[in-house]
Amino acid sequence: STKPTSAQKWVPEKLELDGKTYISEEKYWNISPNLIKLTERRLLFDEANPLNLLKRRIVNHMHKKHRKPGNRSPIFAVCEDQRRIVSVFENFDSLLTPLDHVSRRTSDTYYVNREYCLRAHTSAHQHSLIKQGFDNFLVVGDVYRRDEIDRNHFPCFHQMEGVRLYSADELFGTPQPGKDFKLFETNGERTKEKQEFHAFDAAKVLELKLKETLEDLCRELFGEKAQMRWVDAYFPFTHPSFELEVFFGEKWLEVLGCGVIEQKLLESAGAGSKVGWAFGLGLERLAMVLYGIPDIRLFWSTDTGFLHQFQGKQPGDSIQYVPISVHPQLYMDISFWLPENHDSTHMKSDAYDLIRNIGGDLVEQVEIIDEFYNPKTNLTSHCYRIIYRSNERVLTKEEVNVVHGKITEEFIRLYNVKIR
Ligand code: FA5
Ligand code: MG
């Protein structure tokens, strides 16, 4: 029995996600049906989505640039299949988030019950992965926050986490006589630049390597043309902490947070003998800058006018997004038999030309959606889907019929096809 306490609050009994069932608690539940729909989209696994392209590009770069001694194998493990519902311990406590921190509130985080929430950042997986023994890893995934919605914010967005841990030798290189660098110091002081446990040199080298890694990544993505700046920041699980901003759309846009991992976190995860850094990238923000996508909501578009600009592209390709029309699409198909012995490949290029020539600006896309050969009649059939859309106005069905009719006539006249 469901007895709503507040008017119209939708509280299902349970939520099933990523193969696990969570029993909801009305007092905490604040997930909307619309948000559930977002969890089902899995944009990062959709090859036509720019976020998928960007993810692969960053992973390729990190694999290429960060390798084991001897240079043969990449050091970063890539984790893409972590469960998206995490415990309050994983999302907050393990990351040393104070009990009264705003991010814990039900106004900021989506809760299923007292214990479990939708992850608000990929940092939620740091503790458990380090505990499992991973020293160097990337975590990619969708994260959820009760944020405002505008051009740069959306309640579901995507992050990539990076964690890199070092022993003294890994951080400073093999020890040399007379040079005795240490990771830790006792009775040290916590300052703006370092944690109390860290030796000054260790903290400085970590900060340098962290910033170098991220600047190098941004140069690979944006080339030399991009303007970037470092800003001091605060996160409960890193110190010192920084944010990187990139100049885009006439403003500075924050694209990532990062810092030197709090030693207390590493200790509690069983890696207290190492030191390390971590970063969390906002993939949408980077993709907006990289591909010139002006609004974060576009990543959720199912409009083929958007998706076609990324479909079939490789991570290394340079792509600049061309704004699509705000008017609706209309599509019509045309199917015909080619004359006997007419070359199928040639027909395709001829067909694309013919359709564009007659349809002009009204044709947004053409694709062949069906092709087959009938051995009995020795005939080949083609079916093309034509997507009509105007930049200036809403097209009427009648208007499109006229254009489509002309295209059909030209196919018959020029190529002697038999309409099916
Ligand atoms: C974090 O989420 C930290 N976990 C990052 C981190 C990781 C710090 C590891 C230190 C070590 P923040 O809330 O600032 O930090 O988000 C990180 C990035 O996600 C932002 O820089 C931004 O690019 C992106 N981001 C944040 N909120 C949104 C949103 N609502 N929509 C789209 N992108 C967002
Ligand atoms: Mg931030």
From TrEMBL:
Catalytic reaction annotation = tRNA(Phe) + L-phenylalanine + ATP = L-phenylalanyl-tRNA(Phe) + AMP + diphosphate + H(+)
**Which enzyme class?**
ligase
Recorded GO CC terms: mitochondrial matrix
* EC number of this enzyme: 6.1.1.20
Using the record for this protein, list the coiled-coil segments as residue ranges, or answer none: none
Q: Could you tell me which Pfam families the record lists for this protein?
A: FDX-ACB, tRNA-synt_2d
Subcellular location(s) per record: Mitochondrion matrix
Enumerate the GO terms in the molecular function aspect. Answer: ATP binding; phenylalanine-tRNA ligase activity; tRNA binding
GO biological process assignments: phenylalanyl-tRNA aminoacylation
Q: What is its main location?
A: mitochondrion
Domain (Aminoacyl-transfer RNA synthetases class-II family profile): residue spans on this chain: 73-323
Q: Which UniProt keywords apply?
A: Acetylation, Aminoacyl-tRNA synthetase, ATP-binding, Ligase, Mitochondrion, Nucleotide-binding, Protein biosynthesis, Transit peptide
Q: Give the source's domain of life in one word.
A: Eukaryota
Enumerate the InterPro entries for this protein.
Answer: aa-tRNA-synth_II (IPR006195), aa-tRNA-synth_II/BPL/LPL (IPR045864), Fdx_antiC-bd (IPR005121), Fdx_antiC-bd_sf (IPR036690), Phenylalanyl-tRNA_Synthase (IPR002319)
List, for all copies, the residue spans of the domain called FDX-ACB.
Answer: 325-420
Record-linked PANTHER family: PHENYLALANINE--TRNA LIGASE, MITOCHONDRIAL, PHENYLALANYL-TRNA SYNTHETASE
Return the similarity comment.
Belongs to the class-II aminoacyl-tRNA synthetase family.
What is this protein's function per UniProt? Is responsible for the charging of tRNA(Phe) with phenylalanine in mitochondrial translation. To a lesser extent, also catalyzes direct attachment of m-Tyr (an oxidized version of Phe) to tRNA(Phe), thereby opening the way for delivery of the misacylated tRNA to the ribosome and incorporation of ROS-damaged amino acid into proteins.
Q: How does it assemble?
A: Monomer.
Task: State the name under which the record lists this protein.
Answer: Phenylalanine--tRNA ligase, mitochondrial
Organism equals Acrobeloides nanus
User: Taxonomically, what lineage is the organism?
Assistant: Eukaryota, Metazoa, Ecdysozoa, Nematoda, Chromadorea
